[in-house]
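Ticket 4471: requesting a sanity check on a complex prediction with adenosine-5'-triphosphate. Repro inputs:
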Amino acid sequence: MIEEVDPSQLVGLERKAFKRKATTEESEDGDEGDEEEVLAMPKKKQKKEKKLKELVEEEKEENSKKPAVGDKIIESSEDEDGDAEEKSGEPVKKGKKPGIKDPETANLDMSAWSQFILPPEVLEGLRKMRYTKPTPIQEMSLPAAMLKRQDLLGAAETGSGKTMAFCIPIATRLVENGVKDGLRALILAPTRELVVQIYKEMEKLLEFTQFSVIPVVGGLSQQKQERLLNRKPSVIVATPGRFWTLLEATDYLQDLSQLDFVVIDEIDRMVETGHFAEMEMILSKIHAIENKSRQTLVFSATLSFVHIPINRPGKNAMKLTKEEKIEKLVQIGGLRKQHKVIDLNESAGTPSSLIEARMNCSDLLDKVINI
Ligand SMILES: Nc1ncnc2c1ncn2[C@@H]1O[C@H](COP(=O)(O)OP(=O)(O)OP(=O)(O)O)[C@@H](O)[C@H]1O
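Returned structure tokens:
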């Protein structure tokens, strides 16, 4: 004998389930009326009771699959800096991903990179980005920067792929030298937008490695910046002003002895946007640390600078030849003697010959503003 159900005795889930099912049945049957009317129909009582029991069981099972209140739900989100972090505030640990090839890129022919003997993890990053062959600036920079480990002054027009010309050597050396404590590469760029752009490219390239990169720019809250630095990144991409402030105040940046790469991107704009003083202070701090294997890569859209007049009586903007300008950049960047200059803006599209820089100047800043 089936017991009759009085809906007023039902609570919570059971009542909700009963009401939902009853409503569904009404619309299916074409009947109209509220819950009370349905319950007042004696002919349907037995059928309803049976269905109610089934429904209550169904709903209980459904709810048991949902996480209980208080369960920790880890969600990943990305903010405008492409900064992925857990909702809990803890950094997402970066690790080597399994070597499963994405079916969409698995068949890409990557053989054009073989001349550079890239580590598989780095090649995998390039594959994921679908960069199947180097651009001309990359093709010219990589042998010097990677195979000969030379310092570099490179110029090529905007959009020519300069970013990967310095990201690939950095990623390769990181993988080759393995995991170590401390900052391994610093990339300075003149604007927040450029920093974010470079950071995103570098992050993609490092995806299959154990190394991480963070952006350091003005406008990020102190709390967030600290959280990013707590990841102890191997690579930092920064505007000079913000990096200088952190350099003074951050424990992680006190030991720069592991710094193998210093990159200055768009050095021409760096001079024009008034970042030069901070950049010079950062570089002099780094250069005070002896590290023979440290490489400096300097890039610019052009090696022909706009002349900047100086506002001091008796001083006019100096007219410099292109070679003199190159020499100045080599000195500002602190490039070693056996550096290489590559200028793809030249009409012939061939690199300039090797230039050894030696300048006699007492006040570097004074010289720069005369460029
Ligand atoms: N090897 C490659 N194959 C295909 N695309 C590439 C390759 N290298 C870079 N790119 C793409 O070319 C575009 C320009 O690259 P990048 O931003 O590095 O140029 P850039 O010279 O640094 O320009 P900018 O001066 O604007 O920063 C980007 O969209 C980048 O994703």
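Notes from triage: The pocket of adenosine-5'-triphosphate is lined by residues 131, 134-135, 138, 156, 158-164, 301 (CB under 6 Å). Leaving this open until the requester confirms.
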